[in-house]
Design goal:
Layout lengths: L1 H22 L8 H23 L1 E6 L8 E4 L4 H10 L4 E5 L8 H8 L1 E4 L5 H16 L4 E3 L17 H9 L3 E6 L5 E2 L2 E2 L2 E7 L9 H21 L1
Parallel strand pairs: 1-9, 2-5, 2-6, 3-4, 3-5
Antiparallel strand pairs: 6-9, 7-8
Helix pairs in contact: 1-2, 2-3, 5-6
Length: 231
């Protein structure tokens, strides 16, 4: 049954993505808000299909932050990006530059949300990331980063990268940590029925020293994530 429901969702996701990507391609020539409108509807339709076909829903704990703030989230699956994109209402998302090279997907991503980073470019990559994030904040939008840089299966040891500290130190805004447990239910192709929890934690105020910030961020995200996974 799990295999059938997972396959049905995958068919829905692929068909939905293909049709919308082609139909709305002209929007890329219009101002960014037009593509954001399309992206929001694509995400909503994807999550609707996840609930209907795979029986996988979601719940949100506490309100999502608004406006110019840094958001640092645990990352376990593709679901995280989808759900946070809606919850944060048009964030700028720090992501690998390589994703922008994917036909259609990368084009829309670049237009709507991308704060690309070239991991092989060292210090210059961090400077470019900070500059792009500053532009997002100036528009009154939040900046979303996954501090570990990649998806982590539940129970794996945390590995927080320095990029989040660079953003925190240079942007001078509060950082809202996010815990979630999507990895319990979204495991690649396999989708297990249940309810994914997304928890927005108390903000970390600006101005902390680098070590203190990184320690506090990791501790609060990991402790809250483990509680969700044990729930």
């Amino acid at each position: 049954m799990i295999a059938i429901r997972s396959a049905l969702f995958m068919a829905w996701f692929l068909l939905l993505t293909l049709v919308m990507a082609i139909i709305f391609l002209p929007l890329l020539a219009f101002p960014r808000k037009a593509t954001v409108w399309m992206a929001s509807h694509w995400v909503r339709a994807t999550l609707w299909g996840l609930k209907v076909f795979a029986g996988l829903g979601q719940r949100q704990i506490d309100e999502a932050p608004k406006g110019g703030v840094l958001v640092a989230s645990k990352h376990m699956s593709m679901w995280d990006t989808l759900a946070l994109y809606l919850a944060l209402e048009d964030p700028g998302i720090v992501l690998k530059r390589e994703l922008l090279l994917i036909p259609f997907y990368g084009w829309y991503l670049k237009k709507t949300a991308a704060i690309p980073i070239d991991r092989g470019a060292g210090a210059s990559a961090l400077r470019g990331m900070v500059q792009a994030a500053q532009k997002v904040l100036a528009e009154g939008r939040p900046v979303l980063i996954f501090p570990e840089g990649t998806r982590k299966k539940p129970g794996m040891a945390p590995d927080y990268k320095p990029g989040v500290a660079a953003l925190y130190g240079q942007l001078g805004v509060a950082c809202v940590p996010v815990a979630l447990d999507s990895g319990r239910f979204w495991r690649g192709f396999w989708k297990y029925p249940g309810t994914i929890s997304l928890e927005f934690l108390p903000p970390i105020p600006p101005g902390l020293k680098r070590h203190d910030f990184m320690t506090r961020l990791e501790q609060c995200i990991e402790a809250s994530t483990n509680k969700l996974l044990d729930g």
